[in-house]
Amino acid sequence: MLPFTYAVRNLFRDPGRLIQTVGGSALVVLLLMAATALNQGMSGILSASGSPRNVILMGKGSEESIERSEVHLEVESIAATSIRGIHEVLGQSAVSGEIVYMAPISTSSGKKQQGLLRGVTEASLLVHDTVRLVEGRFPAPGEVMAGSLAHRKLGVPQKDTEVGQTLNFGSDEFRISGKFTAPGTVLESEIWFDRNDLSAITQRDSLSSVVMRLADADVEDVDIFTLQRNDLELAAIREDKYYNKLSDFYAPIQTMTWLTAALVAAGAVFGGLNTLYAAFASRIKELATLQSIGFSRVAIFISLVQESLLATLTGTLAALVIALIFLDGKTVPFSIGTFRLVLSPLVILTGLGVGILLGTLGILPPAWRTLSPALPRALRSS
Predict the structure, then answer these.
(1) Domain ranges in the chain?
(2) Could you identify which of 66, 122, 316, 370 might form a hypothetical disulfide with 280, taking C-beta atoms 3.0 to 4.6 angstroms apart as the criterion?
(3) Are 1 and 299 in contact (CB under 8 A)?
(4) How far apart are CA 11 and CA 199, in angstroms?
(5) Sign (positive/negative) of CA torsion 47, 48, 50, 52?
(6) pTM confidence score
(7) Who's near 169: CB < 8 A, 6+ residues apart?
(8) CA nearest 189: which of 373, 339, 380?
(9) CA-based nearest residue to 300, from 99, 7, 58, 67
């Protein structure tokens, strides 16, 4: 076996090539880590947003979009009294009629951006158990409550959605009375209105949905209710299944993320292969000399792999540091919410795996070309 120091010395024989190899591998690893974190973050927030204990009553034919759904106002009270086994808190049924709306919102700084609005009553806190009021109070008429990530969805500084600031919707101004968190869910990017206010501004005389939290009842009981009250034209869907359907809707975006990362990574890999071909082509005579003094081709190949792994794993380490500084914890807004990029074990293992594959598989073509010539021919090469 060749000494390990031989591989280390060879790395620094050509600093330009070393920089290209390390930089290329860092780019490939960083892109694939970012794609993994992005897709994992989007899938994670959608899967965590729904509860298997919650059932959503929506308008029949609008099961794929709450925003397009219309439900009669009386459904809230009818469902609460007709379905047995609904969760209760201090004698109040956990049933929340809500209006979900997407519209432009202006902040005090004057910036106007599409916001996620939800018209609610205090009963909403009985069904959305991940919501925690961390500052201020629940909104009264003329007030709103902002999620902790609402500013990212609106693309404004965090101070614009703090308690005491104002938001403008249409020609009306609303004071932010409270701030809430709902970790890992799309609710955290929303702005909650008093339901009557949002109904009046949007000129709606109906709800978007009725969300109920079940105790002893199950989804089949709710389905029976919708069939018995066919006049209400309702459809029932478990909340977690609704968000799973949304996850399927965003699957093409996730696929495009992978394809884009893969295409850019492929370009970097081919560039790296060209660099290795050029570098090893100039060392054919040197490697043949090593064979002539007794080192086997296997031993030389192992040394080349060590050299390649040192370069690619250095690039992988650089990519991990960059990801830790610039990606970890960053929030990414999308159409129905905002999710965080997290350097989870899967993301880190993806980066390490890609770095190792680059160092081992990437060395095969140039190593084969360098070691395949017969020894007499290799010794005569210039």
Answers:
(1) 4-48+250-380, 61-232
(2) 370
(3) yes
(4) 68
(5) positive
(6) 0.82
(7) 103, 105, 106, 117, 201
(8) 339
(9) 7
Per-residue pLDDT, 69? 92
Say how many residues make up the chain: 382
CA 275, distance to chain mean position in Å, is 35
Residue 237 CA: distances (Å) to CA of 86, 131, 160, 211, 320: 15, 21, 36, 10, 41
Pairing outcome for strands 191-194 and 112-120:
parallel
Structural tokens at position 47: 């899967």
Q: Of 237, 212, 202, which is closest to residue 66 (Cα–Cα)?
A: 237
Q: Which of these, 233, 237, 239, lies nearest to 75 by C-alpha position?
A: 233
Q: Is residue 69 a contact partner of residue 99, using CB atoms and an 8 Å limit?
A: no
Q: Which of 231, 132, 147 is nearest to 186 (CA)?
A: 147
- The per-residue pLDDT for range 108-160, each reduced to its tens digit, is 888 888 899 999 999 999 999 999 999 999 999 999 999 999 999 998 999 99
Q: Share the mean pLDDT of the chain.
A: 87
Pairing between β-strand 206-207 and β-strand 71-72 as defined by DSSP bridges: antiparallel
Q: What is the DSSP letter of 186?
A: G
Q: Categorise residue 203: left if φ over 0, alpha if ψ from -120 to 50, beta otherwise.
A: left
Strand partners, 112: 106
311 near 28, Cβ under 8 Å? no
209: β partners: 98
Q: Letter for the amino acid at 48?
A: A
